[in-house]
Amino acid sequence: MSYNWSEEAYRRMGEVAIKAQLAPLDWQHITCQCGVHYGGCRNQGAKIVVIHAVGACDQPGLDEDGNRVEIRCTQCVEQLRREIDYKIRRLNRVSLGRACCEPCGAPLGLVSDVLREVKDL
Ligand SMILES: [Zn+2]
Ligand SMILES: [Zn+2]
Ligand SMILES: [Zn+2]
């Protein structure tokens, strides 16, 4: 049997295309990664959240901007927003409105300074 490189390449491209189609299906089965509930949250993940690791953004295991990328359900994203809002207000009260993330110096004035991105899964 003759070996045809372009056929082989075509077959591989087909495999890649199939994997790309399957990947979004796999996301459907990912559960919320919220860690604040006892035993974890069992809801289906709905959002990808990018959270700045305030006060620890120079630690390993984060992206180049010091963010954690996690999957949350809709309710937990709302709860996260409220928690961040509360913490930012409290920090700004003690620092007279000049709260910032110590390792990188990024200002912390808005929820979006910590919760940097929320994308649909
Ligand atoms: Zn959740
Ligand atoms: Zn939660
Ligand atoms: Zn930082």
Can you tell me about this structure?
Helix content is 40%, strand content 15%. It has a 3-stranded antiparallel beta sheet. The chain has helices spanning 5-27, 74-94, 111-114, and strands at residues 47-52, 67-72, 115-120. The termini are far apart. The radius of gyration is 20 Å and the shape is elongated. The chain has 121 residues and is α+β, with helices and mostly antiparallel strands. The chain is built from 3 helices and 3 strands, in the order αββααβ. It has one domain (32-120). The mean pLDDT is 86. The chain binds zinc ion (3 copies). One zinc ion binds at residues 52, 57, 66, 101, 103-104, 106. Residues 34, 36-37, 41, 76, 79 line the site of one zinc ion.
> What string gives the helices and strands in order?
HEEHHE
State the separation between the terminal residues, measured CA to CA: 45 Å
**How many structural domains?**
1
Portion of residues within helices: 25-40%
Using the CA coordinates, give the radius of gyration. 20 Å
How is the biggest beta sheet arranged?
3 strands, antiparallel
> Which percent range describes the beta-strand content?
5-15%
Name the hetero compounds present: zinc ion
Mean pLDDT: 86
The helix count comes to 3
Structure class: alpha+beta
- The counted number of beta strands is 3
Poorly predicted segments: none
Overall shape: elongated
Sheet with most strands: strand arrangement: 2-1-3
List keywords for this structure.
121 residues; alpha+beta; 3-stranded antiparallel β-sheet; 3 helices; binds zinc ion
